[in-house]
Amino acid sequence: MISKYIINLIKYIFFITALTLISIPAYSELSVEEIIKGRKALFSKNYSTAKKVQTFASKGDFEKAKNLMIEMSENYKKLLEYFPENSKEGFKTEALPAIWENKDEFNNLMTKASNDMIKLTKSIEASDDIKGTLAKLMWANCKACHSKFRAPH
Length: 153
Ligand code: HEC
Description:
Layout (H helix, E strand, L loop, with lengths): L1 H22 L8 H28 L2 H18 L18 H4 L1 H21 L6 H20 L4
Helix pairs in contact: 2-3, 2-6, 3-5, 5-6
């Protein structure tokens, strides 16, 4: 009798341990608050960096502009990880539910924005329309994404 009881107890402990392990989400190190505030900070950073890119490129300071383009490209890649299922609301997020309903489309836009910044490093110097090239490969991507995936602000 006692041994049966012990076996059941061990089974029970094993079961609970397994359940606990399964239910820990991949990004458990970051709280929802850290995720939402973290992505807002990355977007704000990219905005100020984009304005610097515009300034440096317009002045013909291409080396500085290119370094910042690469930084923006990397930030977009990081942002791909900042929209887990549990970060749909709270902490004044402007992220729309459309993101999680169209995750592939959203991720593709983010990846395109990242890739376009690399394209920009290769084409900006030879461009005879700096402003137009920046509008097409940098600013257009902000608008394309915000119009569908960010709440009006
Ligand atoms: C693939 C989608 C996507 C792209 C590309 C994108 N954004 Fe955003 N952006 C968002 C989303 C979604 C939010 C809302 C995030 C939140 O509030 O949780 C946001 C928020 C912001 C914010 C507000 C941050 C805050 O503190 O609340 C700024 C500023 C911003 N974006 C600027 C830009 C600029 C400038 C570009 C282009 C250079 C850009 N974004 C490109 C999706 C995008």
